[in-house]
Amino acid sequence: MSLFSFLGTLEIGFIFGLVAVGVYLTFRVLDFPDLTVDGSFTLGAALAAALIIAGVNPYMATVCAVFGGAAAGLLTAWLNLRFNILHLLASILTMTALYTINLRIMGKPNLALITEPTVLSPFESLGIPNMYLKVIFVAVVVVAIGLLLSWFLNTQYGMAMRATGSNPRMAQANGIVINQKIFAGLALSNGLVALAGALFAQTNGFADSTMGIGTIVVGLAAVIVGESLFNSRSMLVIVISCIVGSLLYRLAVAVALNADFIGFNTSDLNLITAVLVGLALILPHLRREWKARKAANGGEA
Amino acid sequence: MKSSMTLKKLMTTAIAAATLTLSTAQAASVYVATTAIVEHPALDSVRDGIKETLAENGYNDQNMKFTYESAQGNPAIAAQIARKMVGEAPDVVVGISTPSAQSLVSATRDIPVVFSAVTDPVSAKLISNYEAPGANVTGLSDKTPVAQHLDLVREFLPDMKKLGVPYNPGEPNAVAIVALLKEEAAKKGIEIVEAPTPKSSDVMMASQKLIGDVDAIYCPTDNTILTALESVVKVGIDGRIPVFSGDTGSVERGAVAALGFNYHDIGRQTGEVIVRILKGEKAGEIPARVATGSDLYVNTKMAQRMGVEIPQSVLDRATKVIQ
């Protein structure tokens, strides 16, 4: 793998680290399987691109993208909580609606940003080569957000959110307004995913109506890979493991792209992803079984 | 401990894999890397057309490394493929479809990028104009080659002044084609007479209005018009005005002639651009252009009924003649 390709892999890995953290918030913290992200990733990209092209400051456009994503999350939460639609189904409804909304926002299936100003523009005069600048920028942004988020999850509000996911009845009995926590969690999660979409559009030069497809799988893969590597209950370590999981996932994709010599090509990527996620799910389970067996044998001897 | 071991192992495998690929990539003298957003019959035939033209120009598996990657319909993977390709510094990188081409252009400003099957490269910001793209990018658009269509009509009717065009103003694709037609027709001194028809049932009436005013009728690839093509053909026969089309399928249904292209053609024309770059030309100095078509269909019976003679030059080029 060339240095250029490696840096590009890290850059995309960091961006999808935000997706991983967002997916972690819904799937793990709130126990709310949320597929809205497939739509909110594109929504973030579409809003940022359309606003930048309309002449809005890229930072302002990115902030709007985050709020757009948060609104999508709120819609899913509302469908689920207000009308009792199954969480999975509610998120699929929002995701489907977002496809049309994204096309409307963009006005056409693809918006190009190659020659437009982006969040990176203010730093281009620093003289750092673009390939380094991009990865440094996204790394700083993503790590900063990760730190903020792990701090947030340890505040009283964050704890309440975690309690909502792990034992809603107990949480309610302790005076936590669980619906409010679910609204907040979904807004936060989808806001982060939309931010990822906005950053991706700006560092790669385009927003495309198809770009959200499979976001959920990638996010989930990153969460699971991260979880299987780091075994911790500290929020900081967990958030970092999501980001590291995303980086490792992208490295695995890069290896698959470079693995012509073992006969792999890109059309095998989906299988590789599935095997990777499958292994990450199976290994901790087997490890537990071995440990249990070892302990049992030790007892007999 | 255990977790850091696994991490280390993963990293080592990744690095080992990467070095292995690097070492296998050295033998060939030129390297052409192609990528498309998804595996799809049209895009695959672009790739095959490229390979065929390269082979005809003496680039084969012995002296050329040719790679093809599909992004599986996923723009994030397209971005990763673009970084991978640019990192390998090939002689030419080829982006088939808009997102693949955009990913390549945003990844490199040095390596020549050839785009293909991109409908509107200017609004996709791949190039700023067709004539002198500048920088490191050129390529082929798969937009309807209206200029070539006008030339075909002119070959039948050298004195043509006015061309009638029925179309549905509610179809964005048709509106775009009519705008292009007007632009190209103005250059050739032809006046376009629009006949807007919002519904298939209005096609007959709108076409009838053109009789007596225009020298020929051209049906763009507009779903409303193509659905009711028979109405236009009937008007053409009654008014003895030839009807042309932008879609070869229409010729079997009664249009006099149509020129279409297939994606294999686009691939071959893209291949020609790649060969020019491999021979030393700068990508930015090769004009980007709309791919030209080679599927020429003519209908001799209809030509007779609409009172027009098919020129020998057209008959010679025709790929399909319907009696």
Summarize the structure in short:
With 301 residues, chain A is mainly alpha-helical. Helix content of chain A is 76%, strand content 2%. In chain A, strands 1-2 form a two-stranded antiparallel ribbon.
Can you give a write-up of this model?
The complex is a heterodimer of chains A (301) and B (323). Chain A is mainly alpha-helical. In chain A, 76% of the residues lie in helices and 2% in strands. Chain A contains 11 helices and 2 strands. Chain A has helices spanning 3-29, 37-53, 58-83, 87-106, 130-153, 156-166, 168-173, 178-204, 215-229, 235-258, 269-300, and strands at 110-112, 206-208. In chain A, helix 2 (37-53) runs parallel beside helix 4 and helix 6 crosses helix 8 (178-204). The model of chain A has no long low-confidence stretch (mean pLDDT 90). Chain B has helices at residues 2-24, 41-56, 75-87, 98-107, 146-156, 172-187, 203-210, 223-227, 229-239, 249-252, 263-278, 300-305, 312-317; strands at 30-36, 64-70, 92-96, 113-118, 137-141, 162-167, 191-196, 216-219, 243-245, 257-260, 289-290, 295-299, 320-322. Mean pLDDT of chain B is 88; it is low at 1-5 and 18-27. The chains are: A mainly alpha (301), B alpha/beta (323).
Helix/strand layout:
The complex is a heterodimer of chains A (301) and B (323).
Chain A: H1 3-29, H2 37-53, H3 58-83, H4 87-106, E1 110-112, H5 130-153, H6 156-166, H7 168-173, H8 178-204, E2 206-208, H9 215-229, H10 235-258, H11 269-300
Antiparallel strand pairs in A: 1-2
Chain B: H1 2-24, E1 30-36, H2 41-56, E2 64-70, H3 75-87, E3 92-96, H4 98-107, E4 113-118, E5 137-141, H5 146-156, E6 162-167, H6 172-187, E7 191-196, H7 203-210, E8 216-219, H8 223-227, H9 229-239, E9 243-245, H10 249-252, E10 257-260, H11 263-278, E11 289-290, E12 295-299, H12 300-305, H13 312-317, E13 320-322
Helix pairs in contact in B: 2-11, 3-4, 7-9
